[in-house]
Amino acid sequence: MRETVRGRMKAGGIYVQLRSPRSKQLLELNYYPSKAKYYERYDSGSELDHLAFWTRDVDKRFSELTSKGAKVAVRPFSEDGYRLAFVKDPDGIWIELIGLDRRTERK
After folding, report:
1. Among 6, 13, 67, 100, which is most buried by a count of CB atoms within 10 Å?
2. How far apart are CA 101 and CA 55, in angstroms?
3. Full set of structural domains in the chain with CATH
4. Could you read off the pLDDT tens digit of each residue along the chain, which spans 107 residues?
5. Cβ proximity of 37 and 22 under 8 Å
6. SS (H, E, C) 27-84
7. Helix, strand, or coil here: 59?
8. CA distance 30 to 9
């Protein structure tokens, strides 16, 4: 796999996106230093930080999932042209919803 993007999140974390040749799929690795907003001390079983899914309408999908019992982790917000939100599945795994922030495209 090759690194395609590297950056820093406003919450203090660092991310790296990787892609295999001949694949459209991305693997994003996140790291949260101890002073980052979402830092967690490592415990066995916390190896998976979250799964992310692209969606056209983050707010709508967030509402649908929470109405069906998903727990709110982080309510929808905008950052750097993206719309993001997080819910927790029944096992406590964070699910990221990500899409383009259509409101910023209209400007």
Report:
1. 13
2. 11
3. 1-36 (no CATH), 48-107 (3.10.180.10)
4. 899 999 998 888 899 999 988 888 888 888 888 888 888 777 655 567 788 899 999 999 999 999 999 999 999 999 989 999 999 988 888 999 999 998 765 44
5. no
6. EEEEECCCCCCCCCCCCCCCCCCEEEEECCCHHHHHHHHHHCCCEEEEEEEEECCEEE
7. helix
8. 9
Q: How many CB atoms lie within 10 A of CB 76?
A: 19
How do strand 50-54 and strand 94-100 relate by DSSP bridges?
parallel
Can you read off the two tokens belonging to residue 74?
Answer: 């982080």
With CA atoms as reference, report the closest residue to 28 among 9, 11, 5. 5
Whole-model pTM over 0.85:
no
The single-letter code of the amino acid at 33 is: P
